[in-house]
């Protein structure tokens, strides 16, 4: 089954304790990205990757890091989480730019609370 | 800058009736894509429908149709024969044009919470 898998789905942590949210896709997609969803703001892109070892900042990258060492994996790293990073996080993937619709395939979301 | 506006924070509709969720967009590009996603209370994002800026016909997918008015820059979602399972948050989104080096980022609106009443 084609899917994007995120872990953990739910996490409560404390300020300053490093954490990683993993993301894996089995569709051989080139593009992967991370979004955060906050009430009244919709979804905003944090980071994206166009292929292995190619990453760049989205609209709200502060406080986050990513890596793309393998095509299927795109972890999101919070080196020193703060309460303003409490949010619902989505990983998404997409095949190459030649595909007509450009539909993003989303993971199920990871709800993070930073105390 | 590209922007998506959804002016209806919440809406009610009676079961079996049709409902229109509004979406307007702002872009200076000629080539773009418009999407609608559904987010039920469980949180996942479900793709509903896509409209390309050069598509001459309005997109339809089952009970979902997209009322695309390019001159007005609107891309309203129409759900026919509403069902209780349609109760969810609905997001309109626009994709940045696919050109060299594009991020394929989706720009989302703030969403409309739809409640279907029996």
Q: Could you explain the architecture of this structure?
A:
The complex is a heterodimer of chains A (115) and B (118). Chain A contains no helices and eleven strands. By secondary structure, chain A is mainly beta. In chain A, strands 2, 4, 5, 6, 9, 10 and 11 form a seven-stranded mixed beta sheet that branches. A four-stranded antiparallel beta sheet of chain A has the order 1-3-8-7, with no helix packed on it. In chain A, strand 4 (31-38) and strand 5 form a beta hairpin. Chain A is globular and about 40 Å long. Chain A starts with a strand and ends with a strand. The model of chain A has no long low-confidence stretch (mean pLDDT 92). Chain B is mainly beta. Chain B is 0% helix and 50% strand. Chain B has no helices and twelve strands. Chain B has strands spanning 3-5, 10-14, 19-21, 24-26, 33-39, 46-52, 60-61, 64-69, 74-79, 88-95, 106-108, 112-117. In chain B, strands 2, 5, 6, 10, 11 and 12 form a six-stranded mixed beta sheet that branches. In chain B, strands 3-9-8-7 form a four-stranded antiparallel beta sheet, with no helix packed on it. In chain B, strand 5 (33-39) and strand 6 form a beta hairpin. The mean pLDDT of chain B is 92. Classes of the chains: A mainly beta (115), B mainly beta (118). The A-B interface holds A 31, 33, 40-45, 48, 50, 56, 58-59, 88, 90, 92, 94, 97, 100-106, 108-109, 111 and B 4, 33, 35, 37, 43-45, 47, 50, 52, 91, 93, 95, 98, 102-106, 108-111.
Question: What keyword list fits this structure?
Answer:
heterodimer, A: 115 residues, mainly beta, 11 strands, B: 118 residues, six-stranded mixed β-sheet
Strand content of chain B: over 45%
Which class do the helix and strand fractions of chain A yield?
mainly beta
Which chains have the largest interface?
Answer: A-B, 28 and 23 residues
Q: What general form of chain B does the structure show?
A: globular
Order of helices and strands of chain B: EEEEEEEEEEEE
- Work out the number of β strands of chain B: 12
The low-confidence runs of chain A, each spanning 5 or more residues with pLDDT under 50, are: none
The oligomerization state is: heterodimer
Strand content of chain A: over 45%
Total number of beta strands of chain A: 11
Structural class label of chain B:
mainly beta
Amount of helix of chain B: under 10%
Largest sheet of chain A: 7 strands, mixed
């Amino acid at each position: 089954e084609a899917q994007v898998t995120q872990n953990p789905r739910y996490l409560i942590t404390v300020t300053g304790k490093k954490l990683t949210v993993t993301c894996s896709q089995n569709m051989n997609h080139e593009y992967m990205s991370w979004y955060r969803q906050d009430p009244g703001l919709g979804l905003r892109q944090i980071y994206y990757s166009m292929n292995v070892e190619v990453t760049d900042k989205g609209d709200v990258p502060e406080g986050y890091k990513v890596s793309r060492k393998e095509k299927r994996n795109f972890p999101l790293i919070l080196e020193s989480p703060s309460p303003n990073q409490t949010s619902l996080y989505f990983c998404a993937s997409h095949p190459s730019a030649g595909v007509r619709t450009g539909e993003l395939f989303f993971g199920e979301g990871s709800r993070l609370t930073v105390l | 800058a590209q922007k998506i506006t959804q002016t209806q924070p919440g809406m009610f509709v009676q079961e079996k009736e049709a409902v229109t969720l509004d979406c307007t967009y702002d872009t200076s590009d000629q080539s773009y894509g418009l999407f609608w996603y559904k987010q039920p209370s469980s949180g996942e994002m479900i793709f509903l429908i896509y409209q390309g800026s050069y598509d001459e016909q309005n997109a339809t997918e089952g009970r979902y149709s997209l009322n695309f008015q390019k001159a007005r820059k609107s891309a309203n979602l129409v759900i026919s024969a509403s069902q209780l399972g349609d109760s969810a948050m609905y997001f309109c989104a626009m994709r940045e044009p696919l050109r060299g080096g594009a991020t394929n980022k989706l720009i989302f609106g703030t969403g409309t919470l739809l409640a279907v009443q029996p």
